[in-house]
Specification:
Maltoporin, Chain A; 2 helices; 386 residues; mainly beta
Length: 386
């Protein structure tokens, strides 16, 4: 009841502010922009435990209050954001979770050639049962600090150097606790007015805190890609290359494979648009006795505007997770095929207020039957973003 009262009070308060009712979109204190938001969602799931048998159904409420700050000065920008994600179940209260997310960033531009971006992200969150490899809620905390520098060599080329230092800590799967250092270098060359080719090199060093895991490794990858923004209606990035993971302990066999990613969007008209995203990546260990997992997936959505304020979306995804080693008592390598599909309807009542109805079906088909599950979920959301 407290959560429902909070939602009602916030909605009434937002409607009562004249500036917001006129669609101002944000608030200011001098040059400082304040963007408070409140995302709320009521969900019904017919398989809250993501189990292959004896599925349990329940309703749960998710409320995300947050605040984003942005401070532009000269050609630079400073910003920060924090939100809290509260999920409360009607019947199975042991599934309740509270997540915290925060970030701070700075973007500096020095003349026409040099750019510097700094970003720090902190999260105290969880992997849901349906997404974790164990089938349990995996709570964690993580922090990642990134510095990215760019230098414009000429009108048609630039170089970029990134460094990220991150740490992962897990509440129950402590064998996954680790620190990662990632160095990425890029060279871009623009051969058409709106299209650039680039070469990317990545080097990642992973140190696990539990020495008994013997999973410390170094990963090197090289990729070639294309980046284009032919018009505001057609944008995309695609890249593909080769990856090699070398373990420090000789008994762990090294691994090499191809890697790729794509992020594409196109507007056919004012009423129809499509988005596609895909990737093939190598993840660190998620199960004891497993050195790594490879994930290959594709996601797509088609958006159709019925009116200026009402739009419908059709979405679907396909993904394959392959585990590097078998876990006793199994003798075969685990392979999960996960598919999902859904449809949604959004009504943008104001620039800062929207209502969403969603249906989603998700199915995981594993070669180890105990990891199978399917779920149908129905959602109603009210989002306020000022």
């Amino acid at each position: 009841m407290k959560l429902k009262r909070l939602l009602v009070l916030v909605c009434l308060a937002a409607l009562a502010v004249p500036g917001l009712a006129n669609g101002e979109g944000n608030m200011h204190i001098g040059a400082l922009e304040l963007h408070p938001y409140l995302l709320t969602k009521e969900t019904y799931s017919d398989n809250v435990y993501s189990t292959s048998t004896a599925a349990k159904h329940d309703y749960f409420t998710t409320i995300t209050p947050g605040l984003r700050l942005q401070f532009p000065f000269r050609e630079h920008v400073l910003g920060a954001e924090y939100n809290k994600v509260l999920t409360k179940y009607a019947r199975y209260e042991q599934e309740n979770t509270i997540d915290h997310n925060a970030n701070a960033f700075a973007a500096f531009k020095f003349g026409s050639r040099v750019g510097l971006k700094l970003l720090d992200i902190y999260a105290k969150g969880h992997e849901p049962r349906g997404s974790s490899s164990t089938g349990f809620i995996e709570k964690y905390h993580t922090n990642a600090a990134t510095a990215s520098a760019t230098y414009q060599l000429a009108d048609v080329s630039k170089i970029q150097l990134d460094y990220t230092k991150s740490r992962w800590g897990f509440e129950s799967s402590q064998f996954r606790d680790r620190q990662e250092g990632l160095v990425s270098a890029y060279i871009y060359y623009r051969f058409l007015p709106k299209t650039s080719a680039f070469v990317e090199y990545d080097h990642k060093k992973v140190d696990f805190e539990a020495t008994t895991t013997n999973l410390d490794n170094k990963t090197d990858s090289g990729l070639f890609g294309l980046l284009w923004e032919i018009t505001e209606k057609s944008k995309g990035t695609v890249k593909a290359g080769y990856l090699r993971k070398n373990f420090e302990v000789a008994s762990n066999k090294d691994f090499k494979t191809w890697t790729a990613s794509a992020d594409l969007s196109h507007e056919f008209s004012d009423y129809n648009s499509v988005k596609l995203a895909g990737q093939r990546i190598v993840n660190e260990s998620t199960l004891q006795g497993v050195r790594y997992t490879t994930t290959t997936g594709l996601y797509g959505e088609f958006i159709h505007k019925l009116t200026y304020k009402i739009s419908a979306v059709l979405r679907g995804s396909y993904g394959v997770d392959k585990f590097s080693d078998s876990v006793a008592p199994e003798t075969k390598l685990r392979k999960d095929l996960t598919t999902s599909g859904g449809i949604g309807l959004k009504y943008a009542m104001r620039d800062w207020l929207e209502f969403i109805l969603d249906y989603n079906h998700k199915k995981r088909d594993s070669n180890i039957d105990a990891n199978d599950y399917h779920e149908n979920s129905y959602m109603f959301s009210v989002n306020i973003a000022l």
